[in-house]
Design a protein that fits this description.
alpha/beta; 308 residues; Rossmann fold; binds guanosine-5'-diphosphate; 12 helices; seven-stranded mixed beta sheet; 12 strands; binds zinc ion; globular; 2 domains; binds magnesium ion
Length: 308
């Protein structure tokens, strides 16, 4: 099974021009054996070796959503919660680079600022590779590779498939998706979050190429984030989606076997100030209060478990 999945036999090394190389699990580029990150897409290479050594399939969870929806902030806090053993999870970062994203987000929020925008270039994205298990009677470890991708890159790939190869490969190899949708914008009556998420899911649907009566089985958690702007979203996220993101709700029901809506927010209270760089009004997070950050991830993990 492992060899079929990644075209690897017992040895991950491949000889290219007399030099032993290791193929990247995401983009298939050949890299020197001692490299930590892929030279093409910056994905962690350690996982290729671990997959062989530990004889288990890696579970890639991708966080997707439009630019500015809150992916970086959400992922940073999620990783930090896992590192604090929230929900009885145990999470081991594989390589110091895996801790960078979490550190950036926590440092900025401690200084009451939001982290900077994620660059569009894939080689500047921060990837996190963690081995995670929930301490139960028979704990099973899963490898989680979670890249913090730029929303613009996803939008470009969705609009013109195959322009961003890394994204396509990544999504096709993902065992679960966390799709972030801006609940605040949706509650204000903007159709943009609904259209963007419908486009993204229809891209994923087309990529799977399933027949019209076959639904997609990978779990998709739809995270209605910035729910502090519309607290009613916490009461019944699915009902909120049905009312405010109706196109998305319908597409999920028609094409996806396992999906669930969650409300999430990382903000306790916000203030507004004028930026000292360009005079625009910027939100200032006065304090963080995490709500609904772990739940979508827990749900994805539970649905992996169901599969195996
Ligand atoms: N009110 C509120 N604003 C948020 C929250 N999370 C993120 N934001 C805002 O959304 C902006 C973009 O967040 P970011 O994580 O960089 O989005 P990304 O482009 O999807 O990675 C931040 O600068 C904040 O202004 C939240 O939980 N509540
Ligand atoms: Mg980002
Ligand atoms: Zn790569």
């Amino acid at each position: 099974m492992l060899s079929n999945l990644f075209g690897l036999k017992n040895q991950p090394e491949l000889i290219v021009d007399d030099i032993p190389t290791i193929p990247c699990l995401i983009c298939d580029a050949h890299n020197p054996l001692d490299a930590m990150l892929c030279k093409e897409c910056s994905a962690p290479l350690l996982i290729a070796q671990d997959v062989i050594a530990q004889q288990r399939e890696p579970q890639i969870v991708s966080i997707i959503g439009e630019s500015n929806v809150g992916k970086t902030v959400y992922l940073g806090f999620l990783l930090d919660m896992l590192a604090h053993r929230a929900g009885d999870f145990e999470a081991i970062p594989k390589g110091a680079y895996s801790v960078d994203l979490q550190q950036t987000v926590i440092n900025h929020m401690a200084r009451r600022t939001f982290p900077p925008k994620t660059p569009m270039e894939a080689n500047e994205w921060k990837w996190a590779y963690y081995q995670v298990c929930q301490r139960a009677q028979n704990p099973t470890w899963v490898d989680l590779i979670m890249p913090d991708m730029a929303g613009e890159a996803l939008a470009a790939e969705v609009a013109t498939p195959k322009t961003f190869r890394v994204i396509r490969k990544l999504l096709s190899k993902s065992s679960g998706l966390l799709m972030l949708v801006d609940a605040g914008m949706a509650a204000n009556g903007s159709p943009q979050p609904d259209f963007f998420s419908v486009k993204t899911l229809s891209y994923i649907d087309a990529m799977h190429g399933n027949k019209h009566d076959e639904k997609i089985e990978s779990p998709v958690a739809i995270v209605l984030c910035k729910a502090d702007y519309c607290p009613e979203c916490f009461d019944d996220p699915a009902q909120f989606a049905k009312a405010n993101l109706n196109r998305l709700w319908n597409l999920c029901e028609s094409r996806f076997e396992r999906y669930e809506f969650f409300a999430s927010s990382v903000i306790g209270s916000l203030a507004y100030a004028t930026s000292n760089i360009d005079d625009t009004v910027v939100p200032v997070p006065l304090h963080t209060a995490l709500r609904g950050v772990l739940e979508p991830f827990q749900w994805i993990i539970d649905h992996f478990a169901e599969e195996s």
